Prior knowledge:
mainly beta, 5-stranded antiparallel sheet, 3-stranded antiparallel sheet, 2 helices
Amino acid sequence: GGGSAYVDSAGFVWQKDGWFVGGSKGSRSGAIAGTVDDKLYQTEHAGKAFRYSTPVANGIYMVRLHFAESYYKLPGQRIFNVSLENSPALNGFDILKEVPRYTALYKTFFVAVSDGVLDVGFAGLKNSAKVSAIEVQSLPPDGLMINSGGPTELDSAGQLWIADTGFFGGSTLASAAPITTSATQSVSQSIRYGSYFGYRIPVPNGTYDVVMHFVE
């Protein structure tokens, strides 16, 4: 958001700010904690109301929104909402309630696009909304695998499991105990549990095979 084309420390190419309506670009100097890609967080797109409408193929996407507060000093000074595909994603979001000033923060979401355009909207509740970068990754059409209670991981078969997402309720627990007869040993060591919890995963309409993995 607000920046020029950039190649980050992992070799990932970020396009220059584009496909937006409203808001304005800005930048501030200063080291950013929690990242080696300070430049990514030193620019921003900000405003009381602005929107990104990015052309994409229909499908399921991971959308990661990157933030860093470099202007306000205290929680409560900047509060805003974010929507994805016209549905609420962040309500009453306050960067400084979660991390200190000049510190990188990101939020990850999964969204289904069916109209050829990925819409991300920002609306300031107190002062302006802002975003430093928007990361979009298309997910494989043959399935989405979620590591319940754990982080993003590659299993021993080379399959990508995304970090726990889309859940409501429950708690997490991790174990270092080895899991036998499983190609997903490290993934199986984390769980989500509770008396009442579930998952809401946005997908296009259709028929799906749902495979659930358990270990006691």
